[in-house]
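Protein modeling request. Please complete all fields; requests missing the sequence field cannot be processed.
Requester role: graduate student
Desired output: 3D structure, token encoding
Chains: 1
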Amino acid sequence: MIFNRSYTFRSKYSPAEIKKNLLGAHLSIHKLDFEVIDKEHMLKIIPHAENVQDVKTLPITHVSIKSKSDGTKVKVTSHP
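Delivered output (80 residues):
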């Protein structure tokens, strides 16, 4: 069975600082390549699976960043 997952946490960094550090970054997790892009007013972490033969399902992750009075609220939602 396939599940959606969500995590919410607070950061002391501003939304601009978080976006600056993540936007355009390439992440390598378990020998898979992911890219962070800005789309529809949120960050998306998109898998690059052109050359992957073994994996059938890869998650697409949305990162919502909202400024709060005590820092920044970051919500990470992942779905296959």
